[in-house]
Amino acid sequence: MEPSKEYVFKYKGVYFGVNTSPEYVATLEDFEIKDSDIFITTYPKSGTVWTQNILSLIIHEGHRNGTENVKTIDRIPWLEYNIQNADYAALPLPRVFATHLPYYLVPRDLRKKRGRIIYVSRNPKDVMVSYYHFSKFFPIAEEVPDFNLFMERFLAGKVAPSSWLDHVTGWYSHAEDFNILFLTYEEMKKDLRSAVLKICSFIGKELSEEEVDSVVRQATFESMREDHRANYKDLPGGLVPKNDGRFLRKGTVGDWKNIMTVAQSERFDEVLKEKMKTLPIKFTWDINDEM
Ligand code: A3P
Question: I need a surface site. Which of 38, 70, 186, 254 has the fewest CB within 10 A?
């Protein structure tokens, strides 16, 4: 079953949500990069908002010490979904953007190693389950109530931004073209402090021990759930969540086991696991697994 045109369109082989347009996405290849720019790049449901919050806390002292009350989405907007109609050229430096674009649609200058990319990936079963719940909550995502049907769509890449495997493989196999740091959701979950330090080092930001502690404290799932700047309780662009859902839902590793049957898990493995062997990362499928 194809996704409904009411919710997605296709541009150069990739599905996009309708809160942007093919014309706008086409302009992004020429988007002017500043050397200090940072792009948080992900397949949806892989920890984007978490990483946005971490970057905002690292860069903005006023966020870290609570003296400024700016929503993360306003500090770190979406590149291809400019919901707020913000003037991206006027953002303070370093500018940070979030994007779900595949490697071949991002601003051309990034390929000249200008700017920095932080690519976060997550084990695809948790991505899929998180996405399924998200589609019931996010007002402009197509709700597919039947989980099995959603899984088939996910496996066939018939969700925005198309195939999970193509996205991750594309970015990993073109890593040499970019100035890029790879992180996984699971390593962030296991050792948030180390992930914060990796990010600081990658963007060249020195923080004191206390400042790092403060970032880590405010970037945990529990803290973010309480932080209205970070938890998407008020969705951007005046969007109202469906079904009283919460963006910060479970925030764990291995939640897929609570919804997928053995047969569904096997079907998933049959389609993806063999192909995933070519990826240079080993995903953690359960919170208790060794990393
Ligand atoms: P779940 O639905 O499994 O809870 P994205 O921001 O890329 O859309 O990813 C959303 C997922 O990241 C959701 O997963 C959300 O709960 C989780 N998440 C957000 N902040 C988190 C945090 N501080 N710690 C752990 N998970 C977090």
Answer: 70
